[in-house]
Amino acid sequence: MSELLLRARCFATAAHAAIDQRRKYTGVSYIEHPAAVAAMVAEHGGSDVMIAAAWLHDVVEDTAITLALLRQEFGTEVAALVEWLSDLQTPEDGNRAVRKAREAKRLSGAPAEAQTIKYADLIHNTASIVRHDPGFARVYLREKRHVLAGMTSGHPVLYQKALDSLQAGEQQLSLTPRQAGTASQ
């Protein structure tokens, strides 16, 4: 493991542990999610910068860590990817539908590296949400289909795996294509 990746892993672990962040539904230490995302990005040939950003992808969104601190600690490339991956909207920015539409539009313009990390994030989150919260999963799957429709620049194999994970979730919940919010692909 490179020095950059070791630092990113330790930094993310400490940031999430500082607030005792746990995975929703399972209560396991939150760092298992960034670890899974980073492993997926690495498995699909991601650069050290991408893998570092995968480790750090939720620290700005979920902890007191700022983009300025990430830029200082990890450089502009890593911080820029984390910025693309961070949804910093609040309920004051509009209802959920408005915020998610804005997020989809923003991510459609993200660089391929950020989109690749987002695919891995979506894959890991989808399985957990479908398994543990079928009611919310119906909303989540529809939103993520919309996001993926505009995010086609990342790693093609991970993109297909992200689509497949949504389809598997829809099948598990027995959603028709219309209920899932898309025509069959």
> What is the CATH superfamily classification?
Hypothetical protein af1432
Number of domains: 1
Shape: globular
Q: Note poorly predicted spans.
A: none
Identify the quaternary structure here.
single chain
For the record, the CATH class is Mainly Alpha
Mean pLDDT: 93
**Secondary-structure arrangement, i.e. CATH architecture:** Orthogonal Bundle
Structural class: mainly alpha
Radius of gyration, Cα only, in angstroms?
A: 16 Å
State the helical fraction. over 70%
Number of strands: 0
Could you tell me the CATH topology label: Hypothetical protein af1432
What about the largest sheet?
A: none
Topology order in helix (H) and strand (E) letters: HHHHHHHHHH
N- and C-termini, Cα separation: 38 Å
GO molecular function: guanosine-3',5'-bis(diphosphate) 3'-diphosphatase activity
Domain HD/PDEase: 26-135
Protein name: HD domain-containing protein
Give the topology, please.
Layout: H1 3-18, H2 32-43, H3 48-56, H4 59-62, H5 67-85, H6 96-108, H7 112-132, H8 134-150, H9 156-172, H10 177-180
Helix pairs in contact: 1-3, 2-3, 2-7, 3-5, 3-7, 5-7, 6-8, 7-8, 7-9, 8-9
Organism: Larsenimonas rhizosphaerae
InterPro entries: HD/PDEase_dom, MESH1
GO molecular function: guanosine-3',5'-bis(diphosphate) 3'-diphosphatase activity
